Amino acid sequence: MKNALKFLVALMLSLLARAVVRRYRPNIVMITGSVGKTSTKDAVAAVLSSRFLVRKSEKSFNSEFGVPFTILGVPNPWANPLAWFSVVKSACALLVLPNHYPNMLVLEVGADRPGDLARILRMATPDAVVVTPLPEVPVHVEAYASPEAVREEEFSPAYALRAAAPLVISADDEYAITNAKRLPARVISYGLAKDAAVRVSDIGFLEADGRVAGMRADVAMQNERGELTVKGSVGTTQVFPVAAALAVAVAFDIPLAKAQEALASYEPPPGRGRLLRGRNGSLIIDDSYNSSPVAVEQALATLKSFPRAKRRVAVLGDMLELGRYSVEEHARIGELARSSADLVAAVGIRARAFANAKGEAEVLLFDNSKSALKGLVGVVQEGDVVLVKGSQSVRTERIVKALLADPKDVPLLVRQERKWLLK
User: What end-to-end distance do the CA atoms of the chain give, in Å?
Assistant: First the structure.
């Protein structure tokens, strides 16, 4: 009964969203891929806002429910059954009454199960697609026949593009490059590769007043050169969403200077490498939104290279939805963690594999985030740099909350809505 109701609701939303798109015909930029979709979506929306009336997906609402909420311009009604009447009312008003509807939609789209993106593509056809990196072992792989199947679905919005439409891909992603060559789209690449249309180089930490304040890099596009900066978050993964947004600027003929001006207001979403002041004079790298092997690998590289840290502490939760790759990837990441940090706190059953991995770092074992937050409060010391990362269900943001120096910073954390706090 529950599944049947969910199917009917999804069908209703899809039909309403499709009708609204057909009536107003906005330009649609879809953000797909495995790594950094939400950050990329926010950066792309910031750049396009310099020229268009933009509406973007809220937070990480990228499912067959979240996408139509964005198209209809309504808040998520799941917490309030009566709010569904407002959804229908708003949709009918859009279809019947004159409205000042956005002329640009920036839609983040995601796939948890096979067929998810096909259902979304029936609602809206993209005019441009941005594909974020597609790693060797992507998240949600346990629901698919193989990693290749995940990558194929995540790339699939590109197949819906008309000839010569913009397709933005990572110049460092061999899978995306190979697939893009088969399409008649206008391919615009970004990344470290020398032939990237938006080439990033000399990536490093942005410092202010002797402290790390974010990331910076040199950027070159269309015979223009400039500096790319991301404030408040660290990691090379924070640089590439901005580079992807600059590639979208190329697609829509927005000059580099104007794109940089628009990006001045951009900051990565909560839980994505955010720098926060921690207890006892420590510094927290809050990367608690989600976790996958490639994301942990990149986060550990950031921790290892972080300047002037007296001690590097990696608080790592289970990486979920890896299926048959789980044991192998937890063992590999455990070895990497013990060579990147001075102290590793493993949170969850799967993360216990870190204790058996090669490496010199001490490993503390915790069953869950609640026991970890109690155990770690007295462990962090002055000068520690503490990376916190784990899959969504592990709720490692609870650990970040316990380690904050100032409770006023709690609103900067991910999953602070009432529905999450009650779980």
Answer: 24
List own/partner pairs for 340-343 with CB under 8 A and 24 or more apart: 340/300, 340/301, 340/303, 340/304, 340/312, 340/314, 341/300, 341/303, 341/304, 341/312, 341/313, 341/314, 341/387, 342/311, 342/312, 342/313, 343/311, 343/312, 343/313, 343/314, 343/379
Go through the chain and tell me how many residues it has: 423
* CA–CA distance, 142 with 295 (Å, rounded to integer): 17
Q: Which CATH superfamily is domain 2-263 in?
A: Mur-like, catalytic domain (3.40.1190.10)
In tens digits, what is the pLDDT along the chain, a chain of 423 residues?
467 878 888 899 999 999 999 999 999 999 999 999 999 999 999 999 999 999 999 888 899 999 999 999 998 887 777 788 888 899 999 999 988 999 999 999 999 999 999 999 999 999 999 999 999 999 889 999 999 999 999 999 999 999 999 999 999 999 999 999 999 999 999 999 999 999 999 999 999 999 999 999 999 999 899 999 999 999 999 999 999 999 999 999 999 999 999 999 899 999 999 999 999 999 999 999 999 999 999 999 999 999 999 999 999 999 999 999 999 999 999 999 999 999 999 999 999 999 999 999 999 999 999 999 999 999 999 999 999 999 999 999 999 999 999 999 999 999 998 888 887
- Give the CATH number of domain 274-421: 3.90.190.20
Q: Where are the domains of the chain?
A: 2-263, 274-421
